[in-house]
Amino acid sequence: MEMLKPLPPTLREKKRYLAIKILYEDEISEGEFIRLLRDASLKFIGYWGTAKANPWLVYYNYPYAIVRCQRDHVDFVKSSLILVREFKDKPINIICLGVSGTIRKAKIKFLGIKPKRWFLVKREKK
Predict the structure, then answer these.
(1) Which of 3, 29, 78, 106 has the greatest number of CB atoms lying within 10 Å of its CB?
(2) Rounded to 5 degrees, what are φ and ψ at 31?
(3) How distant, in Å, are the alpha carbons of 19, 29, 39, 78 from that of 87?
(4) H or E element that contains 90
(5) What are the beta bridge partners of residue 54?
(6) Residue 42 DSSP SS3
């Protein structure tokens, strides 16, 4: 069986990462936020729009989250999350802190998480 060739970078779909802050009186679990994200996108942009935008939770540490989506549909995903007003009959506010091209830059710039440092170990010559 032959292996499929990977897509070249020019044909891959471009992704963007939304840094989000959740303002809610109780702590929301990761599963609850995934359900909230899915329901909000289905309600605002429908099945077809959700399939095209492909929102996906990449990082979650309450009250912060990073959501991946397609570059052309960033505004739709952002507006669908901003329009959420209630969760479990309590008011909720979701703030989009910013959009980035990589997860690492979204964490550094918007969430204030310091990156891990990688050090190269020099080997001694024998």
Answers:
(1) 106
(2) -65, -40
(3) 20, 12, 11, 17
(4) strand 90-91
(5) none
(6) helix
Nearest Cα to 84, choosing from 25, 125, 23, 126? 23
Candidates 3.30.470.20, 3.90.550.60, 3.40.50.2300, 3.30.70.3250; correct CATH number of 15-122? 3.30.70.3250
Whole-number pLDDT of residue 118:
63
CA distance 81 to 95: 8
Respond yes or no on whether the N-terminal peptide bond of residue 63 is cis (omega within 30° of 0). yes
Rounded mean pLDDT of 47-60?
96
Q: Give 34's contacts (C-beta < 8 A, 6+ positions apart).
A: 57
